[in-house]
């Protein structure tokens, strides 16, 4: 038996409208959430048309050979940045004329694997073994309106198509759970002297990789409590269902990051010759959404962890893309530089309790954000509905102008020893308490 896709009812109207404009086909993305029992589709977004594609469609017979795979995967990468925790690109759709129906499924299969490859390349986290890896391929005939939904396992390159149920449902996200947190970031990333051309982007990603592991190992307090990951997220909240408030639940989450390594692991200090450093500082707002069908605590925490990691990684990518566009390729020599990371903003999805996000530089006007939502998500947004969620976060690039002198080496060694001492401070304090306790006992009994 194949998977079941519960689909927001408004998506059916959206796809029907697209089918009346097909010349000769249109592709797009399916956005939603996976769960062990079923998947939820909350939005469908068409691929932005290209001028070249429009010209090709006006000349010659209709064909799928002109399908621009790179353009579609780039769109998927851009859209994925705008999704909060818990939401992902669930698959792709195609609305095509009857004469293209025969080749449509092969084209969709190819797109599904290309999109997944593009998205997984950017991730700083790895999917768990129990996660759903099926992705949807939805094909609609523009003439008959016939809907065919199949799935492919993106973890298996040789995966064959499996049938799936496509069911529309109204108010799909009405009872979803929202989780939110603020994470204070202060990440110091050394730039190794051996790194060619001071590759800031590569070094930053390596530093974020290390930081992401700290987030994975953090403790999450949901509404002030540590909950067993296998319990239901809404356990104990059912008695509040009779109130007059909307059925959407919101949980405030605190993230407790471990300061040192686990007691069983040995700590080592390494001295490396560096050409400078990168410092990421600020407070980032994170959000995740979970379906209302008895969600588990581990599902909610996993979604929020990934949003924390994604939002910092994505805005660093956006910053480097902006620097390349405005300043050209990275220079060999650089001085002390301060850059402002784009701020996160949230925008509600029409007819849904879910909010999507985007990133705004300080000099960007509201109109530019509105244009991006129309282009990327095919969704008009009112300026008053855009909520900037956080203060400014910065990136500081600090060079070392000269090679380390003997004095600098001594200072570096002292700093390393101090760090080592801080890591083991708990053991030192515990030992001191034990010694004082033994002295106190001896004096007490000797009197």
Automatic annotation (TrEMBL):
It holds the Pfam family ODR4-like. It is found in: Membrane. The keyword Transmembrane applies. The chain crosses the membrane at residues 425-445. One of its GO terms (cellular component) is endomembrane system. The keyword Protein biosynthesis does not apply. Its main location: membrane. InterPro entries: ODR-4-like (IPR029454). Keywords: Membrane, Transmembrane, Transmembrane helix. One of its GO terms (biological process) is intracellular protein localization. Signal peptide: none annotated. Belongs to the ODR-4 family. May play a role in the trafficking of a subset of G-protein coupled receptors. This is Protein odr-4 homolog. It comes from Sterrhoptilus dennistouni. The gene is Odr4.
């Amino acid at each position: 038996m194949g998977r079941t896709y519960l689909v927001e009812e408004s998506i059916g109207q959206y796809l029907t409208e697209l089918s009346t404009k097909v010349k000769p086909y249109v592709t797009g993305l399916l956005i939603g959430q996976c769960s062990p029992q079923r998947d939820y589709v909350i939005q469908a977004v068409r691929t932005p048309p290209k001028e070249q594609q429009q010209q090709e469609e006006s000349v010659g017979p209709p064909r799928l050979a002109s399908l621009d795979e790179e353009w579609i995967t780039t769109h998927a990468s851009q859209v994925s940045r705008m999704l909060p925790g818990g939401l992902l690109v669930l698959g792709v759709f195609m609305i095509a004329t009857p004469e293209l129906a025969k080749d449509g499924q092969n084209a969709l299969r190819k797109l599904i694997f290309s999109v997944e490859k593009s998205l997984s390349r950017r991730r700083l986290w790895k999917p768990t073994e129990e996660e759903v890896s099926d992705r949807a391929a939805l094909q609609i005939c523009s003439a008959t309106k016939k809907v065919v939904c199949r799935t492919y396992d993106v973890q298996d390159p040789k995966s064959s198509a499996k049938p799936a149920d496509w069911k529309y449902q109204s108010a799909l996200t009405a009872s979803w759970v929202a989780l939110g947190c603020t994470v204070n970031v202060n990440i110091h990333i050394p730039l190794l002297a051996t790194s060619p051309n001071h590759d800031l982007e590569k070094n930053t990603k390596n530093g974020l990789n290390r930081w992401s592991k700290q987030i994975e190992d953090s403790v999450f307090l949901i509404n002030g409590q540590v909950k067993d990951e296998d319990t239901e997220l809404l356990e104990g909240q059912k008695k509040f269902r009779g109130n007059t408030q909307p059925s959407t639940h919101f949980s405030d989450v605190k993230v407790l990051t471990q300061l040192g390594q686990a007691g069983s692991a040995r700590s080592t200090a390494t001295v490396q010759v560096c050409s400078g450093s990168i410092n990421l500082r600020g407070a980032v707002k994170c959000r995740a959404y979970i379906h209302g069908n008895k969600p588990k605590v581990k599902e909610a925490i996993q979604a929020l962890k990934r949003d924390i990691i994604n939002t910092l990684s994505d805005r660093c990518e956006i910053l480097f893309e902006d620097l390349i566009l405005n300043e050209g390729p990275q220079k060999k020599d650089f001085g002390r530089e301060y850059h402002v990371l784009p701020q996160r903003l949230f925008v509600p999805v029409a007819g849904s309790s879910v909010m999507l996000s985007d990133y705004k530089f300080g000099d960007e006007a509201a109109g530019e954000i509105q244009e991006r939502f129309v282009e990327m998500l095919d969704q008009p947004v009112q300026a008053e509905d855009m909520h900037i969620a956080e203060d400014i976060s910065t990136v500081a690039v600090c060079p070392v102008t000269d090679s380390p002198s003997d004095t600098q080496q001594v200072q570096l060694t002292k700093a390393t020893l101090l760090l080592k001492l801080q890591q083991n401070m708990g053991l030192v304090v515990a030992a001191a308490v034990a010694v004082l306790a033994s002295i106190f006992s001896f004096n007490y009994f000797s009197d």
